[in-house]
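ok so I'm stuck.
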Amino acid sequence: MEYAYKDLLRKDILRMIPADGRIIGSIGCGTAFTEETLVRQGREVHGVDIAQEAIDIASTRITSARVVKPDDWHAFPKDSLDGLILADVIEHIPFAWDALKAFAAAVKPGGWIAISTPNMRNIDVLRTFFLGGDWPEPMLGIFDRTHVQVMSHLRLTRWCVGAGLRIERWFDQYDPYGPRRLAFFRSLDLITLRCFHTWFMYQLQVLCRRV
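replied:
not stuck anymore, here's the structure
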């Protein structure tokens, strides 16, 4: 199967990265188009991915990049990283709550983990599945056919706590498909006094610290 995830600068991921941390890992780095920005800032970034075609490109952009097996939860040695990026990764992993514990162990105590994952408790899912009765299987997007986890704010919070992580900050990520949709959902969120805030989040994005 052709590699589906093309170069895309994830500014939403970069805004999550704290100023501290020189040695950073990225699990599921893809072609490392986003992580390359951190290297330009003078940081070490070590990436892993299951796709050789992605790693071939990533190895030219970041400090190191290598292929790992899908079930390798110990890609980095214990306490070896100052920070770790999990950008749209855990929703692809069976028993991901256990995988997150293993990933977190690679970060030094006090180090950070930036997590982004699709929010399956949102308006698009409500419309498509609960009202439309369908669960499509596209190559990309919130219904990506390779997703095996259904993520929600409460579930991700529970996983983080179980992995020994302290939540430092949640980031808002409204619909990314065009400024009009983004503005619409952001306005609707404000009008409803954020009472249904998580329903308007396209992704769940959180910065944690290892306790």
